[in-house]
Specification:
about 0% strand; globular; mainly alpha
């Protein structure tokens, strides 16, 4: 879908401008979604201006477009609009196939909260996985092992790389990636922990961000662009939780003082 969007825009724009427009427009819509969800222009701007999020609008990759659909899908889930949410999340797989992890996490959450039957959830998970298999087949994907070795170990051309991976090679790639990604994720994890405490109704949604951890375990890249959707969910839950406490605290402070126990 990302390539198709660029192709459509290229009828009136140069290819590079089409790529830039998709990323910039996606970032703009992410900003609008943040405002709609949090009802806080200031906090929305602060989330948007963090390096991990702002960089998406400057990159010629599908990550901004992908993040937009994943976050929109979770927003629809929080609005209890289950069918549209599932549709949007399934569509996101056609932008980035690794979004299947977020889709599976969301469907498992819906099953756990009994808003979706296990049979339907299983069928939708099968559909999401089948979409990934179909896309990889049509694209001539070289497979996970070749991608891993090409990305983290060595190799000029994927066609020349053998699909092998030793434990030591994986652990080296994981260590290098973790050393870089942990400082980037630490502030977002903190926001998520506070959001977990302040907004119990959203704890199930925060659990789905575990899919980002699974993504890193499978593909230990130090680039934050793969995880921005999870960052934003943690940030949004923090803002919504803070706003909720802001509405509660004045009432608590204005309440009549309770007599102290003897």
């Amino acid at each position: 879908m990302y390539v198709e969007a660029i192709s459509i825009l290229s009828h009136g724009l140069a290819p590079q401008k089409s790529i830039t427009l998709v990323s910039a427009l996606s970032l703009f819509l992410i900003a609008a979604l943040l405002l709609i969800w949090t009802h806080s222009p200031l906090y929305s701007a602060l989330l948007l201006f963090t390096p991990a999020v702002l960089t998406l609008g400057r990159m010629g990759t599908p990550d901004a477009f992908s993040t937009l659909l994943v976050v929109a899908g979770f927003w629809l889930l929080m609005k209890n609009l289950i069918p549209p949410a599932i549709f949007v999340l399934l569509i996101s797989v056609w932008i980035r196939t690794d979004n299947v992890l977020a889709v599976v996490a969301a469907l498992m959450w819906l099953t756990w909260t009994k808003r979706l039957s296990p049979l339907r959830a299983g069928g939708l998970i099968a559909l999401a996985v089948a979409s990934v298999v179909f896309i990889n087949h049509r694209a001539g994907n070289y497979g996970y092992l070749v991608l891993f070795r090409y990305s983290f170990i060595a190799g000029k051309y994927p066609a020349e790389i053998l699909p092998t991976l030793s434990v030591s090679e994986y652990l080296h790639a994981f260590r290098v990636g973790a050393e870089s990604i942990l400082p980037q994720t630490a502030p977002w994890v903190l926001l998520g922990v506070v959001g977990w405490r302040w907004l119990p109704s959203a704890r199930g949604l925060l659990v789905t961000t575990a899919a980002a951890t699974v993504h890193f375990v499978l593909f230990p890249s130090p680039e934050a662009r793969y995880l921005v959707w999870a960052y934003l969910l943690c940030g949004i839950m923090f803002v919504v939780g803070a706003s909720t406490r802001g509405r509660i605290l004045p009432t608590e402070m204005n309440a009549e003082p309770r007599p102290l126990a003897a």
